[in-house]
Design a protein that fits this description.
Layout (H helix, E strand, L loop, with lengths): L3 E4 L1 H15 L3 H21 L4 E2 L8 E6 L2 E7 L3 E9 L4 H7 L7
Parallel strand pairs: 1-5
Antiparallel strand pairs: 2-3, 3-4, 4-5
Length: 106
């Protein structure tokens, strides 16, 4: 079943910040990373259940895909996939979610 994929505002800001950071060293690498993230999110239209559940946000049913050193965080809904964030794997995800007020996006 194909689902609609929608990026939350925080997730789009995450992607933009990461691309800007990578572009400081290599604009080409930044463009490649952004394309990988967008393509990975788009692939969730048909394969939304493939990501693992995020242990830090349990018992919520939030999933993730790994893209390089980053975690694409998303929630599967009946007819949609909501992209909630794109976070570096070394960050404390639970603390970040709390600090940035993303509780409503979980």
């Amino acid at each position: 079943m194909a689902r609609q994929v929608a990026w939350a505002r925080h997730a789009l800001l995450d992607l933009e910040a990461i691309a800007e950071y990578i572009a400081e060293d290599s604009p080409e690498a930044a463009a490649r990373f952004a394309r990988q993230a967008i393509d990975a999110a788009a692939s969730l239209r048909d394969f939304a259940d493939r990501g693992r559940y995020v242990p830090e946000l349990a018992p919520l049913k939030v999933r993730e895909l790994i893209i390089g050193s980053y975690r694409l965080i998303y929630r599967v809904q009946d007819n949609a996939v909501a992209i909630a964030g794109l976070i570096h794997g070394a960050r404390d995800l639970a603390a970040l979610w709390e600090r940035e007020g993303r509780k409503s996006e979980r």
